[in-house]
Design brief:
The protein has five helices and eight strands, in the order αβββββαβαβααβ. With 249 residues, it is of the alpha/beta class. The protein folds into two domains: 2-132, Leucine-rich repeat, LRR (right-handed beta-alpha superhelix); 174-248, no CATH class. It is elongated. This is Glycoprotein IX (platelet).
């Protein structure tokens, strides 16, 4: 039993040393065969330190606690005495857990803690806060939860759609059906060809221009078309560089 007490005290001091929110360690002492008294009063605590679950008495009065983390006291199953008075508790939505816990465990609370802020509930016992006081908190939490779910689903759908579009674009083949009467290409559409191709192009255009002048430059004369010898080279370049397949009909 002596070894168990020494182990419990060592565990308490270890937890208190790794807690950065306190200036001095809490004073711990054993109470009976399985009880542990932890005195953390007047230490300027801004949050409750991590304490052993076998704590039976906990003194946290006269600190700077403004709230208590949800579920903090639930693991102290053997707790039979608690003191939380003289702390500047801020009674907003974050105090809801402590209020419910105090209502269920009034018998073990030495002195009921009071609200300090906001001014509308200053000097009012936390247990006197009604359910209506926290009604807006439930609505806000529900609304935020639904909003987050909708946004998450929308983002997932957008990502899936973008990935699907990218995959479809990579695997797509483009086929152009060229009719016989449109089998030529205008000179302006092949300006990016290599110099030797452009030279051949200008040569072909010069020949066509001479024939055009001999016909009197009629308004309904079609624009000069390329020699069909360039077509295989264009098709090959489109297929290799841009994965575009062109099928002549």
């Amino acid at each position: 039993m002596a070894l168990w007490k020494i182990f419990s005290l060592s565990l308490v001091f270890f937890h208190l040393l790794v807690t950065h929110s306190i200036i001095e360690p809490c004073h711990c002492s054993t109470l009976g065969p399985a009880g542990l008294v932890v005195n953390c009063s007047s230490l300027n605590l801004v949050e409750v330190p991590n304490l052993p679950s076998d704590t039976t008495e906990l003194h946290l009065q006269n600190n700077r606690l403004t709230s208590v983390s949800p579920g903090l006291f639930d693991r102290f199953t053997g707790l039979n005495k608690v003191s939380l008075s003289k702390n500047p508790f801020h009674c907003d939505c974050q105090i809801h857990y402590l209020r419910n816990w105090l209502l269920k465990n009034r018998a073990i609370v030495l002195k009921e803690p009071l609200c300090v802020t906001p001014s509308s509930v200053a000097n009012k016992a936390i247990t006197e806060l009604s359910d209506d006081y926290f009604s807006h908190c439930a609505v806000a939490n529900c609304t935020n939860g639904i909003y987050n779910i909708i946004i998450g689903v929308a983002l997932c759908c957008l990502i899936i759609l973008l990935l699907w579009s990218l995959s479809l674009a990579r695997n797509s083949n483009f086929t152009l059906d060229i009719d016989e009467r449109h089998s030529g290409f205008e000179a302006d559409s092949l300006r990016s060809l290599k110099p030797k191709h452009r030279k051949r192009l200008h040569t072909g255009l010069s020949e066509v221009s001479v024939d055009s002048e001999s016909l009197g430059d009629t308004e309904d004369l079609e624009r000069p078309l390329l020699n069909m010898e360039l077509l295989p080279q264009v098709l090959d370049a489109l297929h290799k560089k841009h994965n575009i397949k062109i099928k002549a009909t």
